[in-house]
Amino acid sequence: MSDEDRAGPGGTTWWRDAVTYQVYPRSFADSDGNGFGDLPGVLGRLDHLVELGVDALWLSPFYRSPQVDAGYDVADYLDVDPLFGRLEDIDTLVAAAHQRGLRLIIDLVPNHTSDRHAWFEEALTAGPGSAARDRYVFRAGRGPGGNEPPNNWQSTFGGPAWTRVPDGQWYLHMFDPHQPDLNWESPVVRAEFAKILEFWLDRGVDGFRVDVAHGLVKNPDLPDWPADGAAPAKALDPAAAAPADARSDMNVLWERDDAPMWDQDGVHEIYREWREIVDGYQGGRILIAEAWVSPQERLARYVRPDEMHHAFNFDFLTAPWLPGQLRAVIDRTLEATGSVGAVATWVLSNHDVVRHTTRLAYPDPVMARAGGIGPGDPEPDVAAGLRRGRAATLLMLALPGAAYLYQGEELGLPEDTWLPDDARQDPVWERTGHKARGRDGCRVPLPWHADAPSYGFGPGPDSWLPQPEIWARYALSVQVGIAASTYEMYRAALALRRELRTGGEALEWLDTGDAEVLAFRVGELTVVTNFGASPVSIPAGLMPVVASASLDAGHLLDTDTTVWLREPAA
Ligand code: GLC
């Protein structure tokens, strides 16, 4: 199938090598000084994305919501929460983005609603057996008096996945009790979401990042899982700080291929329907799967020609900083996506995981996960983490396909591992009885100015999570124009990637004769990463054009460094 066919009627294939920047609205830029970022704040900083050189932005949820899970608990899919602005602010943002040549992707949360959504409130009052209840997953309990939950499923955020309502029935919530799961067997739910998609496509958005895309359909028998009630095998990680059953460890739990609530074949029918909807619009509108699915061959099913366009590659995100393992993940990804004619979708950080500059500072990749890091945990080596983080970014941005960046990574921001426990907002912290610290450490508002109150996040000093003093070192204001800064490294890499269109090229590994060094060619670019302790020489005859750290004597690649090289101009 050609690119044009895949793009749909009148579409383009802009997304095949696009770099998309994730904006987490509450932490990006605050226009009114209440300590929460908002849509006018995003508008005011849109030029930052243009200068950085990305192709698109993805906005995490801005919908009406009680904000129990930072907006991933939606009470109205067709309106903007007053915390972030008004519906018109989206229209303004779409227009302003398009005017600047940026695409705008929004987050769609179809697995669950807020318990304050009108559908759920109606379901509660309408009672057992009602059509309103059929929008959700209500069941009778087990045991005497139905006092036990219908099965043994655990919520991803900790605790049982079922909550009982006063009339005795139980409802399913794979996340917080305030996030009841929708019943995707219901044609009513399907029809409602088709309308929601159209509502936003009509307003001009360029696509949807689909939250928990692997979770919508459950095995209809709702069987116990694990069947014997034991902790999931893969979650038994000896390096884990807390017992497996107490941790909120999305990645580990979601990796299981036999789980009756994840990656059921039935989800694909939904995405085929949605693909038809987005293809009905001009301009190349896209669907992106947030699917914590392994192995790559299963994940590739989400990006078959009549389904989604991108699926985040979490195997890559969670891979340890080891050349052999990284190369294997890259190969497997390219093979699996290639087999269905899709592109790879690379990502290192997002609002759910420990920032990669911090994650890579630890020898054990388990720190990637939602457990979080806080006071009392082993402290990362911030400088070493940044060095590796930058090397990992340059490696990623050279890979063929699409890439996603998370706000603040262009500043080299570390995870905020100093956040006081009493400031935590992620429901994971309470739901696990304070065993998992949760995801607040990667959600701390951004530093724009080293010397301003709230580091320029807002006009005043307020910020919904406290910002650590170290933020001053990472502020955009101290990085612009400084050649060695992380910001300028991202800018240089993105500019060259765009100029050479490397995202659309094929990758060819080069033999380095050294197990600690990875090298590949992609189009006109040669990329070398040194994972080893001793410096290595860059290949003769090539000229360094972007590097994650300075090269000793102009040609020596030190430990944890990536360099991009080109043929010298004739
Ligand atoms: C996704 C989101 C995460 C949210 C969860 C429940 O994983 O990325 O932030 O908590 O879904 O909606």
Question: What is the fold-level CATH name, i.e. the topology of the largest domain?
Answer: TIM Barrel
Spatial separation of the terminal alpha carbons = 38 Å
Query: What is the overall shape?
Result: globular
Q: Mind telling me the C-alpha Rg?
A: 23 Å
CATH class of the largest domain: Alpha Beta
**Could you give the count of β-strands?**
20
The tally of domains stands at: 3
Helix content: 25-40%
Strand order of the largest sheet: 11-10-9-5-2-1-13-12
Biggest pleated-sheet summary? 8 strands, parallel
Q: If classified by CATH, what would the architecture of the largest domain be?
A: Alpha-Beta Barrel
Bound molecules: alpha-D-glucopyranose
Strand content range: 5-15%
Query: Which structural class best describes the helix and strand composition?
Result: alpha/beta
Mean pLDDT: 92
Uncertain spans: 1-10, 232-255
Draw up the topology in text.
Layout: H1 3-7, E1 19-23, H2 39-44, H3 46-52, E2 56-59, E3 63-64, E4 76-80, H4 87-99, E5 103-108, H5 118-126, E6 138-139, E7 162-164, E8 170-172, H6 187-202, E9 207-210, H7 250-255, H8 267-279, E10 286-289, H9 296-299, E11 310-311, H10 314-318, H11 323-339, E12 345-347, H12 356-359, H13 382-398, E13 402-406, H14 427-431, H15 471-474, H16 486-500, E14 507-509, E15 517-522, E16 525-530, E17 536-537, E18 543-547, E19 556-557, E20 561-566
Helix pairs in contact: 6-8, 13-16
Alpha-D-glucopyranose (GLC) is lined by residues 69, 72, 109, 175, 211-212, 290, 351-352.
